[in-house]
Amino acid sequence: MKRELDNLVTQMHAGGIHYDEAVREFKRRFILEVLAHHRGNQCKAARELSMHRNTLRRTIAELKLDLGQIRSGLKRPPRGERPAFEAKQTGRT
């Protein structure tokens, strides 16, 4: 993993990415990953990130993250869009 990070940093530097842009993008992706892991639950995500829930909320606002997109991506599709095998497994038709 360290080698991958070293390569990424080298590519970013060569590409002219500034430090503040790199830090912002890292924070954005890391927080999105943790939020997705916890299905959008900010309390659980804040606990894993070792930050207060209010700090996480401020960071989300600062980074202009769309929590609706996270939540909508994690919801089950409507019944009509579910695969047929799912209905059979639960005993419903």
Describe the structure.
With 93 residues, the protein is an all-alpha fold. The protein has one domain (2-89): Orthogonal Bundle (Arc Repressor Mutant, subunit A), CATH 1.10.10. It contains six helices and no strands. The chain has helices spanning 2-14, 19-37, 42-49, 53-62, 67-74, 84-89. Helix 2 (19-37) packs across helix 3 (42-49) and helix 3 packs across helix 4. The longest helix has 19 residues, at 19-37. It is globular and about 45 Å long. The termini are far apart. The mean pLDDT is 83.
What Rg, in angstroms, do the CA atoms define? 19 Å
Tertiary shape? globular
CATH class: Mainly Alpha
Terminus-to-terminus distance: 47 Å
- For the secondary structure, the number of strands is 0
In helices, the fraction of residues equals 55-70%
CATH level-3 fold name: Arc Repressor Mutant, subunit A
Averaging pLDDT over every residue, what do you get?
83
Tally of distinct domains: 1
- The appropriate CATH architecture is Orthogonal Bundle
Tell me about the largest β-sheet: none
**SSE-based structural type:** mainly alpha
Percent strand: under 5%
SSE ordering: HHHHHH
Identify low-pLDDT runs.
none
Please give the count of helices: 6
Helices, strands, pairings?
Blueprint: H1 2-14, H2 19-37, H3 42-49, H4 53-62, H5 67-74, H6 84-89
Helix pairs in contact: 2-3, 3-4
